[in-house]
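User
New here, help please:
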Amino acid sequence: MDETKTETRDARDADRDAEREAALRLPEAEVRRLHWSGSAAAGGFDYDASAEPIEVRTDEGELLGTMFSLGYLRVGDDGRVGGPERPVTFCYNGGPGSSSVPVNFGGMGPVTIETAGTQALGMHPGTHDNPHTLLVDTDLVFLDALGTGWSRVAPGVDPKRVWGVDGDADAFARAIVAWLDAHDRWASPVYLFGESYGTVRNAVLMRLLSERGVDLAGVTMLSALFDFVQTQPTSDLYHIGMLPTFAACAQWFDKAGVGVGEDEWFDEAVEFAQGDYAHALLLGDELPEREITRVVRRYARLTSLPAEFVRERNLRVELDDFRRELLRADGLVCGRLDMRFSSPSPQALQRSTDAFAGEDAADAAVESAMLAAFRAHVRSTLGYRGPANYLLSNFEKVGGSWDWRHAQPGMDQTPIVNVCADIAQTLRVNPTMRLLVLGGRYDAAATWWNVHHDVAALHLAPSERERVEFRRYGCGHMAYIDAPTLRAMASDLHEFYARR
């Protein structure tokens, strides 16, 4: 009798597990593939689009979740789709907790929105074929991280298994391998394109894929951050990296550097930041008084901040202080992701540091417009209706639960993320992979100086260092929303893919 009850209970449990998996999978009818002609390059070209789920499973077959993908595959002159010589690039944003909509409809996909410089967009900005799409050079697969977009963690699976530095990269590695299997693309050169936290994901993912037999042809890091120590205001590297970005922002608002070229002004700030300023931070209160006065004056000239303001903070001005102070007389605060954007100052009672850091004029200006354009395009053009609400971002749930521990290769686990060792190891074991690092002068979330310093501090061998390229633009974090930058990026990316 007991054995019968046990067998019945086991059968019920198995049925429930099967129901959970079935509920997570999208019905076959929900997978949409469409062929149409775009004009994303001179003369136009045809491409196939597909909205489809990818099951993320462990080596033992356990379902961890379903990752939503939106793929664009160019049709060749011979009518074939996805030939073995055609590269494929997997693209995503960061967060953690962001879907891939911004990097897709922001500028890398074949369809994009109309932008308005540093002005906020309306809810329906309009879409058009993107002449600068990366689809010119490579097939594109946009992936939504589990817990974002239409990607969901499987019922019964602890989200912490995939909501963390290492678990997230593992899930993406499994999804990419599954996509290559499903589309028979193992002969294609494989690339990664990540933005913001997506560059952290890139660093770990490129190593994991290499260890699992997928040797990448190239990796693009947009608005990168590799060592999170440099995000802490207690770190001298934080202040060194911020200073050139502050100087660029002050120049943008005509507060400093008037009449000087943008790159010349930024380079002058870099030279001071890693020279006299870094020396002053290192010495602290042992710096002679006359030297303190000289450094304060130079800092004030570059950033337009009052010398007394800089002196009171012992040469260590934090980002929030700068954002509040630069345009105070105008009743404005400048942005964080893109310091060229501005918005009215918060009310005096709104003092939350976290809220102020998360409230960003650049985000508010474009993200809702991107989502509206994406949803309209997927529904009306692809005929795809998702199984639930599409989560453009899910920072509170995903980011709030994130496991920031990371096991660096050959090193002990550290409480503060640093993925530099992952990059160095992958460059070492994959002697043909190339790395392209892109960033902007006005990005205060992932400052240009810091990522350049991260790579310099790897002390790569000459044969490794020559495969790393840098491109700096006059933009902020979301480089693709800036029309001049998007044109320049398209040219640089075209050259990058041509060098494989």
Remarks:
- The chain is about 40% helix and 15% strand.
